[in-house]
Specification:
By secondary structure, the protein is of the alpha+beta class. 42% of the residues lie in helices and 13% in strands. It has 6 helices and 4 strands. The chain has helices spanning 41-55, 82-96, 100-109, 121-130, 135-144, 146-161, and strands at residues 22-24, 30-36, 64-70, 168-174. Strands 1-3-2-4 form a 4-stranded mixed sheet. Strand 2 (30-36), helix 1 (41-55) and strand 3 form a beta-alpha-beta unit. Helix 2 runs parallel beside helix 4. The longest helix is centred in the last third of the chain and has 16 residues, at 146-161. The two termini are 31 Å apart.
């Protein structure tokens, strides 16, 4: 009985959803695509590791950029949850002042260690204000920006479709090289 060898796996190109919230230091060789739930401890830990890998150039072969994406789908009944308010605030903060989204994401995730009564939109806004964001513009964006809502739905759908379930997941890939 003769069997044919199985064909080698062909590299698969990964096309990520739009992710304007990014963090990088220098010319990047790697991309870390991190899908997070801003309420999840595991996401906070993965976020801390990823931002450290970027800031200290810890990946072999060169510096990396972090692209932050969101896992939770935020249906209307969950819009008031910290993960959903925070995701909109992070995306809107980045739109208002590029480079601020990652810092605000860290500040929102730090609310995990606060008493539950402090895990509010008002506290997120206070942290955004300390980062120099215009709170009236942030509120307007969070309430009315349909592109932000569509992007968050796209992130969540991509995560579900690619098995990136749980509190944090993602890819590390060399820029310009498909992931196998």
């Amino acid at each position: 009985c003769r069997t044919e060898p199985e064909p080698e796996a062909t590299p698969k190109e990964i096309r990520l959803p739009e992710a304007p919230v990014r963090y990088e230091v220098g010319e990047s060789v790697w991309t870390i695509a991190l899908f997070v739930d801003l309420e999840a401890t595991e996401s906070r830990q993965a976020f801390a590791q990823a931002t450290r890998a970027v800031s200290e150039a810890l990946l072999f072969g060169g510096p990396a950029e972090l692209r932050l994406l969101h896992t939770p789908a935020c249906p209307p009944e969950e819009r008031g949850r910290l993960r959903c308010i925070g995701a909109r605030a992070v995306e809107c903060g980045e739109a208002q002042r590029p480079g601020t989204g990652v810092r605000l994401a860290g500040a929102v995730m730090d609310l995990q260690w606060e008493p539950s009564e402090r895990r509010t939109q008002e506290e997120i806004e206070a942290r955004a204000r300390r980062l120099g964001l215009d709170i009236a513009a942030l509120r307007g964006c969070m309430a009315e920006d349909l592109a932000v809502e569509a992007r968050l739905r796209e992130h969540a759908a991509y995560a579900r479709a690619h098995g990136l379930v749980g509190d944090s997941a993602g890819y590390v890939m060399r820029i310009g090289t498909p992931l196998k």
